[in-house]
Amino acid sequence: MPPMSQEQFLHALVQQLGEGAVQTGTQVEARFHTDWSGQPPVAPLALVRPRSTEEVVATLRLCHQHRIPVVPQGGLTGLAGAAVPVPGCVALSLERMNTIEEVNARTGLMTVQAGVTLQTVQEAAVAAGMVFGVDLGARGSCQIGGNVSTNAGGNGVLQHGMMREQVLGLEVVLADGTVLPMLRPMLKNNTGYDLKQFFIGAEGTLGVITRVLLRLRPMPQAKATCLVAMPDFDNALAVLQRMQGRFGNSVAAFELMWDNFVQASIQWQKLQAPLAERHPLLALIDVDGKDEASLRDAVEEALGEAMEAGEVVDAVIAQSQTQAKTLWKLREAPAELNTNMHPPINFDVSLPQADIGRFADAMQADFDARWPGHQTLFFGHVGDGNLHVSTNGATVNGECDAVEAALYAQVALFHGSVSAEHGIGLHKKPFLHASRTPQELAAMRAIKAALDPLNLMNPGKVFDL
Ligand code: FAD
Hints:
The two termini are 28 Å apart. This protein has helices at residues 6-17, 53-65, 118-127, 144-149, 157-160, 163-166, 196-199, 233-247, 259-269, 292-308, 321-329, 337-340, 356-370, 400-413, 438-451; strands at 22-24, 46-48, 70-73, 90-93, 100-104, 109-113, 130-131, 167-173, 179-182, 208-215, 217-218, 222-230, 251-258, 281-289, 314-317, 344-350, 376-380, 386-392. α1 packs antiparallel against α2 (53-65), α8 (233-247) crosses α10 and α13 (356-370) packs antiparallel against α14. The radius of gyration is 23 Å and the shape is globular. By secondary structure, the protein is α+β, with helices and mostly antiparallel strands. The structure holds flavin-adenine dinucleotide.
């Protein structure tokens, strides 16, 4: 078949998908030009918003035939620039594939189209008397397909693991339109390669996730939330160990916030200070249990022992779910970073857990020396070794590259990872080699070449071929 012109391709796309599903050229709304990462916007050749797997197949077949790159887009809350269009691409938004197909409390499974938001999944799980194991600040906008494609983490990892642990099956469409229907509702299935794992965390570079079979978790009968102040990081770790020793896997969250983060959060969100005095570190701790009153008593007793041991200097235990929500508001400041930092230079690193405090101190000292007066916030899901750092670009003379180089050099010294949960996308591509050996990168490229030989799926993201 002779090659089609761009115009003919777009015409064929509209003919196959219908006008309602396709926007072209200047019609494409600006919100599809970039994501939360702050990467420069790029207008795609066209935007396609399919409603079904069949429509995804039709789009990919056409793009494959005409060698048009495809960039899958979820809720566009990604922080690594992975969903930003590449020039001349079709941006494939899953936002209209937002049906919850089945929720089964008896089996603890839910089947959804990939464009359902995380919050919708959470609410449907609760309505069925269960909970969903992943939670993060962008819950209202991010989509399950995006969460799977980034192997999202968030606040529940300590108890339930990352997104990978919540996925029992996937339906995926490959670059040439081939459908892989891997939606088998069973945990054990040792029949060769577990193919779905390749697509979890692949950032849309191997195929489009169209449907997801999710695992739900039993709903805890009671939950206790407390905010705990510690004098330093080693004592914070001691508190985590104490709580896990006493409550085991019922410790559902352990989110650590350094004082600079707490103060920014209070100021940006106009919150009341939760404790009378400022402290170097605060931890938000959630513990699950059977009965609220006795659980609160047990948490109080554990914190009392921690105070006697000098690990904790102050604490407040929420007396209701409303109070718990107010305490958790303190941790929601990341949603305000783009408004208050110009621009935010965001990091999402993994470190050996015991070293996180020393790493934060080293970064603070290094930045103090190089950029006096800089604003750098430290916070994270420290219970699972994940630290987030955000530096205000306006306070480091806009020297974003130098800030990144300095931080990633320390990550390498501490044998950490340059991305704990946000992925590589475009933003961290130059630093991927710091966390992966040449042999690992070669294996990744071989997988990419096998599944997408024409390099049409989200090209140039994660690594170059
Ligand atoms: P997008 O940003 O649209 O896309 C992300 C990647 O997935 C891209 O590579 C895209 O091509 C690909 N993709 C999307 N949908 C599909 C699909 N159906 N098939 C194939 N590929 C697809 N992340 C965490 O892990 N933990 C946190 O605690 C956390 N907190 C956040 C808080 C805030 C305020 C914000 C703004 C972001 C936060 N994030 C966090 C980052 C972000 O929300 C996650 O990375 C999320 O999983 C991205 O989902 P999305 O639907 O927005 O995906």
